[in-house]
Amino acid sequence: MVNQSTIRLIKTLSTHISITRICEILGISRTTYYRHLNKHEEYTLTEVENRIHQLCIENHFLYGYRKIHALLTKDSSIKCSVSKVQRIMSRHGWGCCFKQKRFNKPGNPYKTFENLVNRDWNTDQPLQKLTTDITYLPFGKTMLYLSTIMDTFNSEIIAYQISDHPDTKLVLNTLEQLDNLSENTILHSDQGSTYTSREFFEMARKKGVIRSMSRK
Fold first, then answer.
1. Within a 10 A sphere around the Cβ of 147, how many other Cβ atoms?
2. Which residues on adjacent β-strands are paired with residue 151?
3. 129-213, which class in CATH?
4. Helix H or strand E encompassing 199
5. Distance (Å, rounded) from C-alpha 86 to C-alpha 52?
6. Can you list the alpha helix ranges (DSSP code H) found in 42-127?
7. What's residue 103's pLDDT?
8. Measured between alpha carbons, how far apart are the two ends of the chain, in Å?
9. What pairs with residue 212 in β-bridges?
């Protein structure tokens, strides 16, 4: 289904990824995308719709319309009934994304590193300070995950991968794209389980990058 959320997602990602590649990942054709593009560009979200969309994003699309309505009523400047919230969320595909419960406990981190960057992202050369992270991408009633590596020299995305699972394989496939790194290249990340895994440690070591991590 090509709804407004899909169109906005493609337009947002197209600044870093080709539209052809995005459409291929999402399983739609470029023709379908462009056919719906003009129609959706003519539609502007109202103040209520913008606020509901913002609340859905802030809560990673984990709340249903009743919870979103409860959060909306805390904003005294916006009045809206429960049924209207339901209609808006249904129309735009902002429904609750149920997460499968996991009962296995993650193991201890294989390796962590000191924060070498310490919020100093300034550099006068490319490929000196890189940062990597996973971004949640709401897509209708499902969730996609975008793994990126950014060069802080010019804020360029130099590697990326999209998956429907935020697992170690996703970050490994992203890191695998990096080549010709210098001996002083620093790769900064958080202390998530994917970045503290043995697999990511080994690949980063083979790539010759210096690791840096934020504090918990």
1. 23
2. 130, 156
3. alpha beta
4. helix 198-207
5. 10
6. 47-58, 65-73, 82-92
7. 42
8. 39
9. 188
Pull the structure tokens for residue 41: 């560009």
The helix (run of H) or strand (run of E) holding residue 26 is helix 19-26
**Amino acid present at 215:** R
Query: For helices 19-26 and 4-13, what crossing angle results, to 10°?
Result: 140
Nearest residue to 7 (alpha-carbon basis) of 35, 18, 16, 24: 35
Residue 188's pLDDT is 96
CA 120/CA 114 separation, integer angstroms: 14
The residue among 166, 170, 146, 148 whose CA lies nearest residue 157 is: 148
d(CA 121, CA 54): 29
Tokens of 88: 């808006």
Q: Is the pLDDT of residue 73 over 80?
A: yes
Average pLDDT along the chain: 83
Average pLDDT over residues 18-36: 79
**Helices 47-58 and 65-73: angle between axes, nearest 10 degrees:** 110
Tens-digit pLDDT profile for residues 92-114: 777 765 554 444 445 578 889 99
Task: Domain ranges for the chain, please list them.
Answer: 4-92, 129-213
By the 10 Å C-beta count (0-12 exposed, 13-18 middle, 19+ buried), 205 is classed as exposed
- State pLDDT tens for residues 127-183: 999 999 999 887 766 788 999 999 999 999 999 999 989 999 999 999 999 988 888
Structure tokens at 74: 């805390």
